[in-house]
Design goal:
570 residues, alpha/beta, Amidase signature (AS) enzymes, 11-stranded mixed sheet, two-stranded antiparallel ribbon, globular
């Protein structure tokens, strides 16, 4: 029997709390490791079906009785257990409850011949932030351990009603406010492809489980890139919706209560079809009927179809004018734009003016309370701050209410200016821009403690625009070596980023690109992602090496203002 932490006088030291939590987790995982005989394994034909990354395919097989929910659950539990061994990605283990849930689904199917819903038997994992009744939501803080949630998060309720099987909760950084994944409670989470590299953050544990086949659907949160960054670094699909499109109810977060740059919840998957299926199903559940914070907008099938039915006008931003991207990012983005143009879409250069101003205001928001909220959570059990959090909380003191109001005025003015900028832009064809195509990060995955600049993602949180990330390629030490390597850093962040580039160690690490639309246009970014995916599929069917011929002509690009600094455009 594992000792439980009781806060109050004489409470346990943080190291003891961490020891107890890790022991609780590891004990629950151990009997499900692949070489364990404690639980039955599935037959070989069942192994095959459970390798699919696609939700609809799995549910179709379940509906025909070709496999049981219990067998699918066991298979994915074993994968998650192995993923934990490899990457240290888990916080809470729900395996026993998941098996009970799967057996209940099988009983229902046997009795009725019908599935409970579109997620019947689908293995799902959640970032630690999502409340699941009976399990801790620690946010990586020792002081929140051994205090199980009394209710499920609203989206967890929906997922269960639609038949999803919740398997585990996954690791995140202390404070949540970092693009890597480490905390004193559960430790460091490592990249599945290279243990010396970060998987990204703050939804890094979730990305590890998905990459290693532990679930078909993951849920994360995003206040500055936390869904999109690990999706980019791990070859996954991830959606950051407009903050009020889906329900955040029952999802605790650091700096809870602030409304200046709200966090958003969103799905992460191994296939685009699964991302689309999930987004539509959760919106179709009408979350605004139970959460007044959700904007009542139904799934717009016409917007989704329109994005796939005509030539698009796409604004491409190679550079945010602050931190230049590494050669692999530049090449993959260029290749994608060339494919789009060859398919008849109009591609125009997008000027990153206003981005630096948006980021400057957002960084002040992060410290508006002097990080008092984060400090209190850390001090609750006396745990140490990881270096990134220590730098964050000591960056600036709290501001006054009056100063906060002035920040809000700046935010509103910048949001209006960006809105007007988009409205005013007219492409050579005379059409308006449908979406933007941008880098997700200035680099691929990289060694631990190397991730600093998230300007390419957090600007869209500031504007509250939806963004989807999709895998578009990978670093290639031979191809990327051909790009122009000369670059004079513009500032400290740019110099730091450029010093991290290593073509050899980054070789074959995924590169994800980001599609951005205006508020409440989730259907549009998903539709355009499908357009891009089809072009990538066509490219992959070409003879080996044919697609590699798409490389930037730097003389032309420099003449167009598409690299280094502010770009041409309105």
């Amino acid at each position: 029997m594992i000792q439980k932490y009781q806060p109050g006088p004489g409470a346990l030291h943080w190291e003891k709390i961490a020891e107890l939590k890790r022991t609780e987790r590891d004990t629950a995982v151990r009997s499900y490791l692949p070489d364990s005989d404690a639980h039955p394994s599935e037959s070989e034909d069942q192994n095959d079906v459970s390798t699919t990354p696609d939700i609809e395919e799995l549910v179709s097989r379940l509906s025909r009785g070709e496999i049981t929910a219990e067998a699918v659950t066991i298979r994915h539990i074993k994968r998650i257990a192995k993923a934990q061994q490899q990457t240290n990605c888990l916080t809470e283990v729900l395996f026993s409850d998941a098996l009970d849930q799967a057996r209940a689904l099988d009983d229902h199917f046997k009795a009725t011949g019908e599935l409970i819903g579109p997620f019947h038997g689908v293995p799902v994992t959640l970032k630690d932030q999502f409340n699941v009744k009976g399990y801790d939501t620690t946010l990586g803080y020792c002081g929140r351990a051994f205090n199980p949630a009394e209710n499920d998060a609203q989206v967890v309720e929906v997922l269960k009603k639609l038949g999803a099987v919740i398997l585990a909760k996954t690791n995140l950084p202390q404070s949540i406010m970092w693009c890597e994944t480490e905390n004193p409670l559960f430790g460091l989470t490592t990249n599945p492809r290279n243990p010396d590299f970060t998987p990204g953050g703050s939804t890094g544990g979730e990305a590890c489980v998905l990459v290693l086949g532990g679930s078909l659907l993951g849920w994360g949160t995003d206040i500055g890139g936390s869904i999109r960054i690990p999706s980019h670094m791990n070859g996954l699909y991830g959606l950051k919706p407009t903050s009020s499109r889906l329900s955040y109810s029952g999802v605790p977060v650091s700096t809870e209560g602030q409304q200046h740059v709200p966090s958003a919840i969103g799905p992460m998957t191994r296939s685009l079809s699964s991302l689309i299926t999930t987004t539509k199903a959760v919106i179709d559940a009408r979350p605004w009927t139970v959460d007044p914070a959700v904007t009542p907008i139904a799934w717009d099938k016409d917007m989704f179809a329109d994005a796939q039915s005509r030539p698009l006008t796409i604004g491409v931003m190679y550079d945010d004018g602050v931190v230049k991207v590494h050669p692999p990012i530049e090449r993959v983005l260029y290749q994608m734009t060339e494919r789009l143009k060859a398919a008849g879409h109009e591609v125009v250069n997008w000027n990153p003016s206003l981005h630096a101003d948006c980021i400057k205001v957002m960084d002040q928001y992060y410290n508006a309370d002097g990080c008092e909220d984060i400090r209190r959570d850390i001090e609750a059990a006396g745990e140490p701050m990881i270096p990134h959090v220590e730098a964050l909380v000591n960056r600036a003191p709290a501001i006054s209410v009056y100063e906060y109001w002035q920040l809000n005025k700046q935010k509103i003015a910048l949001q209006k200016a960006y809105y007007e900028k988009w409205n005013a832009f007219v492409a050579p064809s005379g059409r308006k821009v449908d979406v933007l195509l941008t880098p997700t990060m200035p680099h691929t995955a990289l060694p631990h403690k190397g991730c600093r600049w998230v300007g390419y993602t957090k600007v869209w949180n500031f504007l509250d625009y939806p963004a989807v990330v999709f895998p578009a390629g990978a670093a290639d030490k031979e191809l990327d070596g051909l790009l122009d390597p000369s670059h004079v850093p513009r500032n400290d962040a740019d110099a730091w980023n450029w010093s991290r580039y290593d073509a050899e160690s980054m070789h074959k690490h995924p590169v994800g690109l980001q599609i951005v639309a205006r508020r409440f246009e989730e259907e549009r970014v998903l539709g355009v992602a499908r357009v891009c995916e089809r072009l990538l599929q066509q490219a992959s069917s070409k003879p080996h090496g044919e697609d590699e011929k798409i490389r930037p002509d730097w003389t032309v690009l420099l003449g167009q203002g598409m690299t280094g600094g502010m770009l041409n455009g309105q």
